[in-house]
Amino acid sequence: MKKFLCLFLTVFATVCFLCGCKKQVNYLDFVSEKRSNIYLYSNDGFEIKIHISERETPYSTDGIKGDMSGFTEIFVTLPKNYDEVEISVADINGEMNYKAVENCYYLSLSGGNISGDSVKVTLSYNGESTEYTAVSVLYDGVISCDDAVKCVIDHNEDLFKSLTQRDIFLGEIFVRLLYDEGCYYYVGVCDRDKKITACLVDGERGNIIATKELG
Q: Partners of 103 in the beta sheet?
């Protein structure tokens, strides 16, 4: 009886040890795009919008995460259109491209050293240069990109389990800060078949506002 009890305790301890050592998947390691801040200026028909992100390079919606690097996008809307519009902000200087469909000027590049609560932006067009202050949309109480992803994981646990095999997540995750009189997050989960499950997350409470299947 004592031998049986010792054997039982040994097996039980081994199982507990193996279960305790089982590696947990960190889904945040599979985020391939993270837009963590937006800077805005808007007044009298002028609008400046700056997106601060990290994203995989090259960028591809294929369910596989690539190497990440910093990425900055700048959108400028003016009351009139000009042949040449140049912008200077932090360590970024360049001529902007006009996007007819969105009726705005656009510049994107890898990197960009923009941080803080606000940033000075200089626009040059029509022979003149004017400085503006773009302000971060983040405010106290807004959750982080990582927390937004965690909210989606908790809400859609079955989806993440179905895409997890042997401690590997067979997909990639996009998380983008949005702003519309308040902060929100778009969180997209893309599998290897390029099917995306998209969620809109409340930026303060972490509630899932809407879910949609894409592709």
A: none
Name the pTM for this structure: 0.87
H-run or E-run covering 4 = helix 2-21
Structure tokens at 183: 């902060």
Q: Where are the beta strands (DSSP E) in 80-163?
A: 86-89, 92-95, 97-99, 104-110, 118-125, 128-136
**Tens digits of residue pLDDT in 26-77:** 999 999 999 999 999 999 889 999 999 999 999 999 999 999 999 999 999 9
Distance CA 5, CA 11 (A): 10
Per DSSP, the three-state class of 157 is helix
Mean local confidence (pLDDT), 152-173? 96
Distance from C-alpha of 183 to C-alpha of 176, rounded to nearest angstrom:
10
